[in-house]
Task: structure prediction
Amino acid sequence: MVKALRDFFLITGKISQFAGRYFREVLFPPYEFQEFLKQCYYIGNKSLGLVGTTGFIMGVVLTLQSRPTLIEFGAESWMPSMVGISIVREIGPVITALICAGKIGSGIGAELASMKVTEQIDAMEVSGTNPFKYLVITRVTATTIMIPILTILADVISLLGSAAVESLKGGVTFQLYFRQVFEYLQFGDFNPSFIKSFFFGFTIGIIGCYKGYTSTKGTEGVGRTANQAVVISSMLVFILDFLAVLVTDIFYDL
Amino acid sequence: MATVVNHNESTVIEIENLHKAFGGNKVLKGFNLTLQAGETLAVMGKSGSGKSVLIKCIIGLENIDRGKLMVLNHEVPQLNRKQLDELRTDIGFQFQGSALYDSMTVRENLEFPLRRHPDKLGTDYHPDKLVNEALDDVGLLHAIDMMPSELSGGMKKRIALARTLIMRPKIILYDEPTSGLDPITGKEISALINAIQERYHTAAIVITHDLACARMTSNRMIILHDGKNYAEATYHELAQVDDPNVKAFFT
Result:
């Protein structure tokens, strides 16, 4: 128990140090713009299909599941606002972050761990390039920027899925559906969830990079790193979400 | 055998009483070395004797615990990040496993060291020309657009060598350049090291287990044993030494 607690504080300290190094180095040249754009492409474009599909299914399922209960209470007209608020406030950012933790976090962890094992990170170092700037700064910045964008897309696709169900089952037009959504949706719903998705993105990037960059134990460590990157970043997404809800409650009186 | 440290103007690496430990495991315990410009020195030793650690200390990948470590008149442990990066452009390092960047083509692998230090090559800075020249030097111009996964072990070693050459280094550090290769390809790599040395007049340290490679490439050899210089002489002189720890390498 004591050892587990000590290990927990030790790894928390090391990750904080790693994140601190990110903030110390991110603003100072040289800047690796090309690699940053490449990572934005990989993280954004390559995850769009998965995030979009999941988002669409999320919207469809949420609407299908909620519909009978709302009909029972004669409140089916609340469907757009209920689904809209649920998706924008909570489901969209959290599900997108979890998908990205699985896809992007593990990918970054495994890639950097394999580079570490095969001495590619050392090769960058000896060629006079700062590997932290080239590998870590670019990836963490890309996840921090791309995950909020993916979240917005997931929200929109989710609402489209929900609107499609309402259109087929309840004869509600898309125009009416979205008018209802935006009538009840306020900036107080959107802003906190948009802001927290930046934190989710940063966390996923920093954990993936930390685990990969500090990987040990050879090729065996590569698989372990990918696994740990997903587990730790998923857990942190939930913890951050909990904290974000507490903070939002102070400012917006949920 | 004692090692004599002679410093003169052509000395490019000077190491005195170098100590390095990992936790309680003392790897280097007072190692000495001098390398003159244009000279090729082979360092031989058993696995785990600290040969690779030695060259990683030279290029600043590992910090030393104690001792003097001068490279091209710079005291390596005293250099800050920027100064170390500058110094590294004068040192080529060939990794044991080649360490080519998997996600880049051969061309991009070779261009990578150039991008941050275009000033170093002054008016010679023409990336395409430099890449073509380096690949031509190692006889692999046709592999320019290939990915590392498409290359054989020997080809990877050659490309890695081309990547070290592209910055026109004054010193090249080879970490087991022939390991994992068949004897014929190993001999080709050794011949290539000689050809590069003749063409560019670089100084080199070759860390190796391969006696044939050490014989072909080196002017002088050091046998590293128990973290110290155990013997130092030319290949032919060492071959005559009647000492079990030296003979072990020659039988």
